[in-house]
Design goal:
2 domains; 5-stranded parallel sheet
Length: about 475
């Protein structure tokens, strides 16, 4: 039996829906970007690229959103993280490893780094400035890459592809996996056995190095001590002593089967170790993307003790060092041919009072650009969102108009949009404005359209939010 929906009364204030979202039928829409101030809050979305930043003409016309590596600089709220999510949403999920080095992850590595270096008399920001180098960042990449690859989903691929590699190569990779892994020693043990199946003297489907039990000889004890000393050089590795000891025991198991010291491979510098690992993964058809973002969320970079951002500059230098970014250029390595298996997407906070120096010179290879918004782009951006909301509205008094109709007309709309720096400013302004309009709703005819007084009030409150952000 069909029951007609009741008519919504919109003419008299007492009977009308009592807020902006009810009036325009927007309560319960699946996704309303205007309610969020950070792109990280949108992790539950099926489509991570809801707003197409290339469509909004924010990127240079010769730099598509999926450019093979890029460096983006922008202030908080300009859309760095949303661009990141757009890229991630379009990267193939199969045979691809994403290394997400975000603010909280960076904090964990820097906490470990600061606790492991011997100098204790200087402020933490100065320690980072002096002692955090490109070599430390390479250690971080090695640890993240190995920890992502040591995963049960790659076991079958490893079995299928191992015959394409010499035993020497597989032995080197087994050593790197055991030395840099931070979790899951059981999967590590299975991978080592798959890689070195000849030496385990077993069938392909039943390999088993005794990862936690082998004869404890004086030589083995000395080797274990040497491995621990070598491991202590990794100042940024996230690990527990238990995980480390198990992984090093697996290395001893490898040594007991092959007779080759793992120190032979670990004496190579970090760049050579990373080259070997990337080349191995590339030959198996596994590509890698490195995302460095949310640095403005790190407690080590933005605090009252480091007003000159020396720690942030040191970290950025380690990331955009030419030797680091060279991995993404595609013209190196025995197996790399013409295309690199690794892409870098680096998002750097822009702070007007303390500019961050970006020294990368090969912009023809890895472009650098800044996200900048003008009033017309902001209007288009909001109308794009309004179009999405309008399609999902239900039981509305009126259809949601364009943004300038809501903001008291074209002239005032442009005037106040010019005052805003980026989308986050608008999100904050809009939520303040809607709260203000709802408060005076019963006094208006027609309702839910801002006046200049409303806009002035909302902008003054926005300035307070901006000031708080500046002092953070």
């Amino acid at each position: 039996m069909y029951i007609k929906s009741p008519t919504v009364a919109c003419d008299s204030p007492p009977d009308a829906p009592n807020d902006f979202y009810n009036y325009y039928g927007l309560r319960g829409v699946q996704y309303n970007p205007l309610l969020f101030y950070r792109a990280e809050q949108l992790e539950n979305l099926d489509n991570k690229c809801v707003l197409f930043y290339d469509y909004m003409s924010l990127l240079p016309t010769n730099v598509p959103i999926l450019s093979k590596s890029m460096i983006v600089q922008a202030p908080r709220g300009a859309g760095k993280t949303h661009v990141r999510e757009c890229i991630i949403s379009q990267i193939p999920k199969e045979r691809h490893i994403q290394l997400k080095i975000y603010g909280k992850t960076v904090d964990q590595y820097l906490d470990k780094f600061l606790s492991n270096i011997d100098v204790t008399s200087e402020p933490q920001s100065i320690k980072i400035q002096k002692y955090w180098t490109q070599q430390r960042f390479l250690q971080l990449i090695l640890t993240e890459l190995v920890s992502n690859f040591v995963n049960s989903k790659y076991l079958q691929l490893l079995k299928e592809e191992r015959s394409h590699f010499s035993f020497h190569t597989r032995e080197e990779i087994a050593t790197l996996l055991a030395f840099y892994t931070t979790t899951d020693p059981d999967t590590l043990c299975k991978m080592v056995n798959i890689l070195l199946f000849e030496k385990t003297e077993c069938f392909v489907w039943d390999c088993n190095i005794k990862c936690d039990k082998f004869q404890s000889t004086d030589f083995a004890k000395d080797m274990f001590i040497s491995l621990k000393e070598k491991h202590n050089e990794i100042k940024v590795k996230r690990h527990t002593s238990t995980t480390t000891d198990v992984a090093l025991m697996i290395l001893l198991g490898v040594h007991s089967k092959t007779g080759v010291s793992p120190l032979l491979y670990l004496q190579n510098d970090y760049r050579d170790q990373l080259t070997s690992l990337i080349s191995f993964l590339n030959s198996m058809g596994v590509s890698i993307s490195v995302f460095v973002d949310s640095l403005d969320e790190s407690i080590h970079f933005f605090n009252s003790e480091d007003t000159n951002l020396v720690a942030l500059q040191a970290f950025v230098n380690s990331v955009i060092d030419p030797e680091t970014l060279h991995f993404a250029l595609g013209d190196w390595g025995e197996y790399m041919h013409t295309q690199s298996a690794l892409s870098f997407y680096v998002f750097i906070p822009e702070v007007s009072a303390t500019p961050i120096n970006i020294t990368w010179a090969r912009r023809d290879k890895i472009p650098i650009f800044t996200l900048k918004w003008n009033e017309l782009q902001l209007i288009n951006y909001v109308n794009y969102i309004f179009g999405h909301l309008r399609k999902q509205s239900a039981v509305a008094c009126k259809h949601l108009p364009n943004i300038c109709s809501v903001l008291a007309g074209q002239e005032l709309c442009i005037k106040y949009m010019k005052k805003l720096r980026h989308p986050r400013d608008f999100h904050i302004l809009f939520n303040i404005l809607i709260e203000q309009i709802n408060t005076v709703y019963s006094q208006r005819d027609p309702p839910f359209i801002a006046t200049e007084q409303d806009l002035t009030y909302a902008f003054e409150k926005l300035q307070y939010h901006i000031l708080k952000e500046t002092l953070m």
